[in-house]
User: What shape does this take?
Amino acid sequence: MNNIRCSQLPRLFRCGQSVIETVVDCDAEQDNAAGRVGTAAHEMIRAHFDGTLTGEIAQNVCAGIGVRQAEVWPLVNAAKAIVAEMGLGTPDAMEDEVTDGILSGHPDAEWTAAGTYWIGDWKSSRLDPDYFHQLMGYAWLRRDRIRTLQGGCVLFVAWLRDGTVERYHVTVEGIDAWKASLDGIMAMQSRPYVTGSHCSFCQRCHDCPAQREDLRQALAVIGDDVTIDVSKLDGATVAKVHRKLKMLATVKDHWDEAIKNRVRTTGPIDCGDGFTLAIVPEKGRREIDTLKAWPELAKRLTDEELAPCLKVGVSAIQDAVAKKAPPRKGAEARRQLWADLEAVGAVTQGTAEKLKEVRNQNLTEKKEIQQ
Ligand code: SF4
Assistant: This one.
């Protein structure tokens, strides 16, 4: 039987095939800006409850991970507020690795309070539709502790971006029944493939036959009609094609990278029709060294004429100001810079339209499920 991480359980309960080992891991949980902010938030939350979080630690964590403190602090403050609202204090354990030899994971934080065991997980973004099974995995791994308590266990996911909490109260019997359902899935001779939004983050997304068939059907809907007249399609088909195209973009990225690696490793490939697939060095974008160019630009243009030609990077300028500040004053210098720039009307923020799937249910709703 595979070794299963608790974080894989939400997908496993949707598609039993998602934990089958593959020859090439799709590396679905790639490095990205949102992921880095989440990593920094986890580190700072842990330091907060450890009692070791200082401005300098926060600065070092964010600089080391390459994110802006302004993006991370709201998440840290949300975790603090949620824990306070639940009446919990300092956790008994944080990010302990627990395993029964087959299932393993590390709950973000654990408490024993008023005869109940609490297990919490911080989420800074949503990779799966719900995390009940991930939490139940943790509960199973902590069942020996939970058995000794009268109040069972409270499991919760804290959504740090909107400050909401998804909470479940489970008993030892409920945990055992859940484990039996997991064992049932794992014992199935032939587990069915079930496609859905969870596929985007599945390690098998690049080689999954069900996914290929779904993509084929989506492409068949598009057909040869390149005029893209979606008004001809019903809403359900449009939504389905949109989801599949997103998936296709993920698969395309993985294929592009794999093909590039292949050509890099084994050399150019003859396409057989007079073309060769090769890695060709191309000149990048021309760049101007601002400092060296400044005297020449100033000779020709006034400040008003020059300003629209220049772009000031928000992170770069904040980092430069923080670096110049006295020790442990970097964060304050950033805040002051931002306040001063806003005061002179130098900061504007536009809005962009983004096509994305949003949950139908009220985001502020709290789930309470008795198991
Ligand atoms: S890509 Fe989707 S259908 Fe295929 S194994 Fe993964 S979760 Fe299952």
